[in-house]
Amino acid sequence: MKYLLILLITLFFPTVSFGETKESMCLSYVAITGNIKKAHEYQPCLDASDLGIGSAQYSVGMSYGYAGKNDLEERYYRLAANNSNIAAYLSLGHVLRENSPWKAIYWYQRYAATKADGYGYAAILISNLFSELGDASQAEYWLEVCKLSPYKGCTNAYNKKL
Fold it and tell me: CB-hemisphere CA count at 13 Å for 8?
């Protein structure tokens, strides 16, 4: 009787056993296998994405990018960004850079505003985009932001502009 009850509970309440969540299963899969390229094929990652877990949405977006499905990559990065996943801000900038430079600037600026590791990298990307768009004052401003950050690439970029 005890085993029948366990079987019925398992069938009617399909949850992850041993307290492991879909999010942790997704992140463990990515971390342990090192296979971010397949996150979009791993059901717990998709389930966690559907639940609004930003880290899972970011992983799925990244894997769609590796698969060459750029529309889905952007879609999942946007979902992750809407859930405050700051890595998605930077990734959206990369995805949008060629076709929508102003949108890319917006996402790079959101990333730079967090002052997270690598914000200087985002600042130099913004500076480069403003330079390409012909706005020298904004390009110079963002180069200065970059130089104030710990990012080492700012010095090289500054020397190239001299």
Answer: 5
> CA torsion 33→39→41→44, rounded to 10°?
90
Q: How many CA atoms lie within 13 A of 32 on its CB side?
A: 6
Structure tokens belonging to residue 147: 């130089």
The answer to whether 45 and 76 have CB atoms below 8 angstroms apart is no
Residues 109 and 138 in one domain: yes
Per-residue pLDDT of the chain (162 residues; tens, 9 = 90+): 444 333 223 333 333 433 468 778 887 888 888 778 988 998 999 999 999 999 999 999 999 999 999 999 999 999 999 999 999 999 999 999 999 999 999 999 999 999 999 999 999 999 999 999 999 999 999 999 999 999 998 876 554 554
CATH of the domain at 112: 1.25.40
